[in-house]
Fold:
Amino acid sequence: MRQIDSAEKRLLLRVEEAAALLGVGRTTVYAMVSAQKLPIVRIGRSVRIPRESLVQWIQELVEGKADERGVDSPASAIPRVRYAFKPPPQSRS
Structure:
């Protein structure tokens, strides 16, 4: 019989736990949260992701129903980053 981890019993997951379950990085999950691609619950300043909502969201993605909500793939939630520095000027010879 399989041992149940304490994280499996909890209703709300931390971002790190959701990232591990999704197989993506913590930064990706935060980007998805900020883009409102994942349902969240705020407890004070803490961000938690309801386990059942995460499972339902994944099922909707697999079934193709998530497109109706405007949710694409997790990669679409990653914001495009522009570099904060300018490349050095090219020397002209």
Observations:
- The radius of gyration is 18 Å.
